[in-house]
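Researcher: We're teaching a course module on how sequence relates to structure. For the next exercise, students receive a sequence and then see the predicted structure as C-alpha cells, so they can try to spot secondary structure elements on their own. Here is the exercise chain.
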Amino acid sequence: MESSNSRKFTILSFFLLSALGAYLFFRGLTQLLDWFKLTNMVTAAVGGYPWKVVGGVISGAVGLVTFVGLSVNQKATSFSDEVFTEAKKVTWPTGKETYASTLVVVIMVVSAGILLFVLDSIWNWMFRAILS
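Model: And here is the predicted structure for the students to work with:
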C-alpha cells in the first residue's frame, strides 16, 4: 500500500515537472523567436497556424517525451519513491513548539537590534566628539 501511494506521488511529480518544463520551453522558444523576429517565418512555414498553436504542440511533445522518459527510467522512479517514503517519516512540530520557537526568535532579534542600536549610538557619539 505504501509503495502504491509513493508511486502515485512519483507519477504526479513527474507530470508536474514535465508540464513546467514544457511551459518554460514554450516561453523560452517564444522569446528566442521574438528576439530574432522569426515568428512570422515559422508560422508561414507550418501553413499559417498561429505560433501559440505550433509552439504549444512542440512544447506539449517535449513535455510528453520528458514525462515518458522520467516514468520509464528506473533510477528516477526509485529515487522519487524513496524521497516520498522518507518524507512521510517527517514529524512536524506541534503548535505549542512552533509558538515557543517563534517567540525565542523574535526576542533574540529584538534584543540584537537594541544592542546594535546602542553600540551604533555610542560609536556615533564617540566619532562626533573626536571629529568636532
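Model: If you want an answer key for the exercise: Residues 1-90 form one domain. Residues 95-131 form the longest helix (37 residues).
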